[in-house]
Amino acid sequence: MVDPLLIGIAEDSHVLAAGKSLIKASPEEKVGVFCKKNGRPSVIEYTEISDEMAKERDENGELVYGESHILCNMFHRKAIEQIGKEKLQYHCAFKKANYLDEDGNLIEAKEPNSYKFESFIFDVFERLEDMIILRVKREEEFAPVKNATGIDSPETARKLYYNQENKHS
Questions:
Q1: pTM, two decimal places
Q2: For residues 53 and 47, what is the distance between their CA atoms, to the nearest angstrom?
Q3: Would you call 142 helix, strand, or coil by DSSP?
Q4: Are residues 126 and 157 in the same domain?
Q5: Which domain holds residue 158?
Q6: Are residues 85 and 146 in the same domain?
Q7: How does pLDDT run across 101-139, given as a tens digit for each residue?
């Protein structure tokens, strides 16, 4: 979705990238977080942050690593041209994966049993001088679908969208 506010802030700040964030619901929430590495914008994926870092709080009691990256990014064409020439690193996560046995029977994994290798667009943030981050309201802009049931499922996303739509009716 085009966000005129994000576009305007990025243009006014003269940056090549912008992103949206929201405050983590809890230290355990499975989201990557914005931070600075060597003075440059970055994201630490939730699978790569230690429990100690995830729970760390500042003098105001807020999470030090609490600025969630919600995968809503905007790049200037110059940034796309620059980063399109570079390879992205791989991130490794240990996940549960269902599989078929020798007889073709579906085996549903109860525990992590496979490695997943992913590359993420946020790794290019570190190659940029700076970017702008716009903090948004969770209930207005974040309805993730990460699980089939329970938290962050299609059911909870539908409820969030329904509540937001009815709020404006």
A1: 0.79
A2: 12
A3: coil
A4: no
A5: 139-169
A6: no
A7: 999 999 999 999 999 998 888 888 988 889 999 999 988
